[in-house]
Amino acid sequence: MSVSLTRQARLAQSLSVARRSAFRCQHFAALAAQTRHEPRSQDSAPVAGPSRADASTASPSSAQPAAQQDETAQEPFARVQSYLAAVNESGIEPTLRDLDACKPSARPPLHSPKYIQQYNDLINTLCRSFTKQQLRKFLVEALGPSKHCATNRKKTDYAESILDQLWKWPTLGELERAKKDRTEVVTKVLPVTASELFLFLGRDGSDLLRISQDYNVHISLRQKPLGLSVEGSRASVRELTEHLLAVKQTFVEEWFTLPSPMPIPTDMVPRISRLAQAYLENISASPGTVRICAKNSESLDVAKRLASRVVQEIVESSRTPVLAHLPPGTATHAEQPLVMFPHTYALYPYLSPRPLPLTMNTSGTFRLRRVGEWLKSGFEEDVESTGGLASEQGHVLTENDISVSLRDLATRALPESPRTTVTASLGHVLLTRVSKDQRATLVPPLTGDHPFGKIRKWIANHPVKMSFVPDLPNPLLSTAPRHQKALHRLVYHSLTSVPDETAPTADDPHVSIHRRKVIVLEATLAEPRGKSESDSVQDAFDSLQSPDEEARPSEKSPPEPSFQVVADTRCTAGVEADVNVLMPDRPMDLQLTMSCSADLPESQQPLALQKYSEDLSAFLSGSESHPEQPTPPLTIEHDGATYLLHSNGSVRQSVEVVSATGRPALRDVAYDSEKLTRALCESSLDLESNQKSMCCQVFCEDPSSEESWKRFLTDCDRLSLMTRRSTAGVFKDEAFA
């Protein structure tokens, strides 16, 4: 059938040619007849030739060949007409296969002149080969009822729709518009809100930079009104606008109530937003409520956790008392130093080699230190002459300049506990100003050197915050730890504090200590066989990593763990209290933690922790049912109290032995507490904030024992005075591990 219809098209073309030939013959015959029958003018001169009578007798014979020529010209046209009539009577119609026979095998380049020429040739071919109704029928069969099949369209419109919709040949108008879009440069302002702008920017503006490079446009910020000014080709600007609108539809927003009815500090909001990749905003009308906008639900959950932790840690830090230890012979109460004791103190800038805690303002941190003297080589406390903490000859002062005893403070912090453990953590008590200014500065809020009493009075009367930051003594920083143990640790603090039964009174003006309930879950990661110890601990530490939004796609898959959680995962519950001890005459400060805890059986553990322990074991063992690292619960319930997640980290733990004489101990030498100090060193990675920290701790298991307490204070003296110029020796606890 298709062959017959193709022949029909060809015959139709032959018919048109025959018609034109017939019309030419008829036209020439009419002209010839008119010439032959035109009367001769009477004024014309006679010419040589046959007479008029001969001409009249010859005319019938001359007209006969002209008629025969007309019949010969009409004969092909009649045959074609009869054939087409027969085809129409048979009901044969062209199909889409007949239409595809007119389609070229290859298409010229869109922006070449040959494309325009071939496009016009195809339109002419379709219009000559098919009727208007046939072209419309092709569109109906291929597209169904649509705007391209409307009955009020022209024949050329149907042909253009066939090329555009069926053959995918863009129209000449589309090519012209595309050329205009590529060459014409326009500027468009896209209005955005503050939250949308933050999410579009990404980390340090990397997302917006990548978008501008992908779409080849220039993007700048317009402040009033807030918006993005996009400059580029018309097509690029249009595509970028559509992309940003599509991304905006995926944003999620939620109003979240913090565990404490207080707003997030203004200087903490940008840090939390940056870490969580979510926009946070305090609701002024409702203190303790924040508005969170994020790209996805994962970032929204991270923002909730970080905001809750920051607020709770700020509350706990504000309740932690700050004591000050001054060696004997130092003026304590007088604002002006005595002549024989000219020690003065000043606030020095503190530059940490590691990121500061999330709750600290990074615009400027300072530590209170003693000012050096011209006639002395050092500006640190001489323990041999002062006796240090162990001699208890110095002064331990409260914020009200009241002298107290560290031992009495430790034993009375938890009076209802049968046995209290005191932990001393080495670090620095840092001062930060409460300011909205984010510019970093080295100028302290209190300039110059002053007596200690004057500085304490200034701190009490000005809005500054004192925070403890754990750290390692300098000699321990340069030593490679051995015999490490890898842990995964969760610490939960109760939202409500334990009532203080030892509040200060007029007769007993001691320190008011904030106590809290804690639950600690520790999972020890065992060593795999066939690996060295350093590689094993590294694998264990890397198996639990914090999520990094900048990771490459190949790094987003969960790492293959080499450790398994030991079956006897330990969970403890108890009460603890913190006290910060400021020691400006030494290179390091102390934080004393009094705690009393007991193991919590699995049957009594919160259900959320039990579920998390199971998921963690399955993840570390490489179970296919748990391919992703589990997320610990933000809050848990136990014994009628609500606990909030305080820390979630991977910990490397090692035991270091410090010698005061500098001589390394042999492995077979017995441990001598008078000459050696055993310290527990930890390197932690917070899986929530992706921040690393280090700490060094010593313990006192029985503060009521005179010998145990004195050995504990001696260890604190030895560690807090260690510097790079110190002669103290450090070696690994290979014999005593």
Automatic annotation (TrEMBL):
Pfam families reported for this sequence: SLS1_N
Renumbered residue ranges of the record's region Disordered: 34-75, 526-563
Residue ranges, compositional bias (Low complexity): 50-69
Domain of life (superkingdom): Eukaryota
Entries under InterPro entries matching the protein: SLS1_N (IPR048400)
SLS1 N-terminal domain span: 97-168
Basic and acidic residues biased stretches: 549-558
Protein name: SLS1 N-terminal domain-containing protein
Organism: Lentinus brumalis
Taxonomic path: Eukaryota, Fungi, Dikarya, Basidiomycota, Agaricomycotina
